[in-house]
């Protein structure tokens, strides 16, 4: 098969006007950015509000291997498939981060014959939204450090500053730094660091805002640290929020691209899935929900993480109600959940995993059952998408089908990677059936519950933990947040995506364990409190052989080596 | 008078297709970015190459006060004025840096009725070129530090690493930092720092490249440091140059905007004027030179700095030959050159400078005479533009006129700030006359001269120094560069822009002094060696009252407070 880039470049793109028209958006609502990308004006939210809403479908997954199980590819494949059964669909996904594109992971435009194009633009700057997040975030950082330099009028406690800086690059050397060295004019010396832009609270704000005014208000509420008396200091206090909103003024407009089969795709925002909620933007969905019969969106990582956060954070903010949830499963991931293999990113699969072995799939099936259950917990109909790989055996697909059906889910085997939308027709039909059922969507917890109640509800009901253990620091932080009036925010638990538990080595559906909450941070602007369970890396590094080393221009100025 | 932003917002913008058509560029060469900005495809350089070239006019200035003397405003006013005398003009300027926009200086879109619009976009991200420079630069930084972390295969000398990081923000705390703290996986600990993006060598590469292929080659030649044996290590050695070029692939296309009077404006690249050459891009000029009767471009700071670098660096690279040079002069700057006043950025002028005093103007006139001479040194016809302010007196303008005419320059009083192009008709006529004269353009030095000969030629003939003193370090560095084969590069002297000398407190046209060269650095990728004379700040800071504190969105989502 051809490379993703070669397939993407062979695509017959439609003029974006036509793509927009297929979701009922006229040229007056478009701002072209180059030939094959456009921004959609924000007034589209209001102008389209009286159209009938599409069915709202979220694509989530079982607990993935470090290789990923093709969730974006399935999202794109499903979106493409609807056209094959006579339905109009819109897709909404996150913008890839440039850091991983040049690191190990590569881009995130889908793959094979289920891709978003132009993939070169999607995987690089697109319309600059990521850069705007970087600029807005770092302006606040500069104003914060400048405030310290100018005599610290806000009485900030240097040991209680939580705001760092961000860059969209995998740069391990920036994780822990000391700033303000040099002379008297060179700022106040203190330890801090950089996170990757996807980890910025400004990114989470972008993803959760419902309007430009809402974005402005959320930015004002961003807490950068605490005074020596323990009171929060905000971006508003530093008089930075207005300029930050000005910097974000274009970035809040969703980007329109298309798939290889010309299905409209909204690409907007790219928050992390652990320390943030890992979902594309609310405004993109508010527009996409008016675009036809189905809006297919993707939630980061497995149903325990991105899925739970989609239901309880994103839907709570947007007011939208999901009609169905796709749970992507693969033979290789279920074999890995048997606990018999070790899968490492950037390396080929162990030979033993490539043998026909439906029993091993069944041994790992507890993970699938639990993730189906995690969808049903929210009253949403699950559909299992078996993302087929060439090395799979029919008996292994059959094993997944049995387990899923026994758990009460619809099931479809998908070959959209090699066959495009045609390869996901069975899935589209199953999703159509599932979303035609009456919905009974419900949040897992009410906003009025205490922060501890929220954490414990998720830990016990979604993760299957026996309970939660708080470190003394975490307990103090929770008390502080409750006292500061942040107790009614949803919680966004930062834990590994490689296990339903907080221990990445535990496969399947672990039981008999307790969730350890090491510390609790708060993104007051974005609107969630995030307990940290385990080591969360917020700035990736490059390996010995970074993807960047193989990416170049050819003699015609075309990109080579990007994937 | 209304604020710049209010005037800009009241502008009757023409569709960009029409603006492009007025410079002979069809819609097939345009890539729209939003409604009022477009990129011009790079193939325009070749496609337009057989059209007759426009007259090439560079706008430079006397030595400015810290307030600036309205060079961009005059560039825009002159460009607008040509239409009033029946000629077609194109303008080419640098992209403003976002750091100063939120700092003290504000944006750089011109002012009053001589502005480039939409000024909100120009002063913020525009099409993301600055962000692309930041991303390409910092990818190389990450790959460099990662190479150290992965066992330092290139045997880099940690004390001889010259490559830093960049951000487009005024952030004094980032000037001197220590990276690589934390644990073993968090990189190698070493001291380094951030410069503002305008100071990036990648920015200078963008500004001086003649094609995408040339940009790729220049990026490969970028030197990041030296081995323990003293050999240069390049971006090509680190296998970073290909990805950097991929990141810059869209950024190398010039941006098309328009003035308040619909004159086409190419905005492209924004290199610093001290440690870099301070001129907009070569590719923009290669396109703009085919756009009509006149191409008006601007060179940073005074004729001794941006002007000299325009002639000897930019024109040497582009192959274009200037036909006339405008020297912007103001009453306030010439009064300041009398040495009797102290002008401080962000504060009102001293009361004493606002009195009618043509004698004081004459006392400062030596600076004007010397800068006129600096233009003539290169065989180019000078035209003095007196940029009139409301507080000026006619007698003071008359004094400037006498001095300029005595020095053999044409002269025009301009009121384009308050009157738009109409206010610069006299200037346009004088420029038309000057550029109709036979040209005798010449470089100040041949490429084959030694680096020391080049430095001394500029110091003595342009700056009026008695000679050059090299520190021992500078001498060693010059020897190293000559030995490494960099001796045929032009030199780009980094010195204060507030005096023709290297001492910012010396006004007028200082004599009886020697130029002290403290150290010499090399931008091998961009293609120049830069001797450093005095303290050059490459990362600005914010003041107690940053512009960012006053910028915000109003209830309609429109920007307020931007200037």
UniProtKB/TrEMBL annotation, chains A, B:
Catalytic activity entry: (6S)-5,6,7,8-tetrahydrofolate + formate + ATP = (6R)-10-formyltetrahydrofolate + ADP + phosphate
Pathways involved: One-carbon metabolism; tetrahydrofolate interconversion
CDD domains according to UniProt: FTHFS
SUPFAM superfamilies: P-loop containing nucleoside triphosphate hydrolases
Pfam family, one: FTHFS
Membrane-spanning intervals of the chain: none
Catalytic class of the enzyme: ligase
Family: Belongs to the formate--tetrahydrofolate ligase family.
Protein name stated in the entry: Formate--tetrahydrofolate ligase
Organism for this UniProt entry: Nocardioides marmoribigeumensis
Gene name linked to the record: fhs
């Amino acid at each position: 098969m051809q490379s993703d880039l070669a397939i993407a470049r062979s695509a017959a793109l439609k003029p974006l006007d036509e793509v927009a028209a297929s979701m009922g958006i006229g040229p007056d609502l478009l701002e072209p950015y180059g030939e094959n990308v456009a921004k959609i004006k924000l007034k589209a939210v209001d102008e389209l509000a009286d159209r009938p809403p599409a069915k709202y479908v979220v694509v989530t997954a079982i607990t993935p291997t470090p290789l990923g199980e093709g969730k974006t590819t399935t999202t794109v494949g499903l979106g493409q498939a609807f056209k094959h059964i006579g339905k109009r669909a819109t897709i909404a996904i996150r913008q890839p981060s440039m850091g991983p594109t040049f690191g190990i992971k590569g881009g995130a435009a889908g793959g094979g014959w289920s891709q978003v194009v132009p993939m070169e633009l999607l995987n690089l700057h697109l319309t600059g939204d990521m850069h705007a997040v970087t600029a807005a975030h770092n302006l606040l950082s500069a104003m914060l450090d400048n405030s310290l330099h100018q005599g610290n009028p806000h009485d900030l406690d240097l040991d209680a500053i939580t705001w760092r800086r961000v860059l969209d690059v995998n740069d391990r050397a920036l994780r822990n730094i000391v700033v303000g060295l040099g002379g008297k004019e060179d700022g106040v010396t203190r330890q801090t660091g950089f996170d990757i832009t996807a980890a910025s609270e400004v990114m989470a704000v972008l993803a959760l805002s419902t309007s430009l005014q809402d974005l402005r208000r959320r930015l004002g509420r961003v807490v950068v640290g605490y005074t020596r008396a323990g009171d929060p200091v905000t971006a508003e206090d530093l008089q930075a929020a207005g300029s930050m909103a000005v910097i974000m003024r274009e970035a809040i407009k969703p980007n329109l691209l298309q798939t290889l089969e010309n299905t409209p795709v909204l690409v907007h925002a790219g928050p992390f899935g652990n320390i943030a909620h890992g979902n594309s933007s609310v405004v993109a969905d508010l527009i996409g929900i008016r675009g036809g019969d189905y809006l297919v969106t993707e939630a980061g990582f497995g149903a325990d993480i991105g899925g739970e956060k989609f239901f309880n954070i994103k839907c709570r903010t947007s007011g939208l109600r999901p009609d169905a949830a796709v749970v992507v499963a693969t033979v290789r991931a279920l074999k890995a959940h048997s606990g018999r293999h070790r899968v490492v990113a950037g390396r080929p699969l162990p030979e033993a995993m490539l043998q026909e072995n439906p029993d091993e799939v069944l041994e790992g099936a507890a993970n699938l059952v639990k993730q189906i259950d995690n969808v049903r917990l929210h009253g949403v109909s699950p559909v299992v998408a078996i993302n087929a790989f060439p090395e799979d055996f029919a008996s292994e697909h059959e094993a997944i089908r049995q387990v899923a059906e026994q758990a009460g889910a619809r099931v479809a085997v998908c070959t959209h990677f090699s066959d495009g939308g045609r390869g996901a027709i069975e899935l589209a039909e199953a999703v159509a059936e599932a979303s035609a059922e009456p919905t009974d969507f419900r949040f897992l917890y009410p906003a009025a519950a205490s922060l501890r109640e929220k954490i414990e509800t998720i830990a016990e009901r979604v993760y299957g933990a026996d309970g939660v253990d708080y470190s003394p620091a975490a307990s103090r932080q929770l008390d502080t947040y409750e006292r500061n009036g942040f107790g009614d925010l949803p919680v966004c638990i930062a834990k590994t995506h490689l296990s339903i538990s907080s221990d990445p080595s535990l496969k399947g559906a672990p039981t008999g364990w307790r969730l350890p909450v090491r510390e609790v941070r708060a993104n007051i602007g974005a609107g969630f409190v995030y307990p940290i369970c385990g080591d969360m890396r917020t700035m990736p590094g490059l390996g010995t052989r970074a993807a960047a080393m193989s990416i170049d221009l050819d003699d015609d100025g075309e990109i080579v080596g990007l994937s």
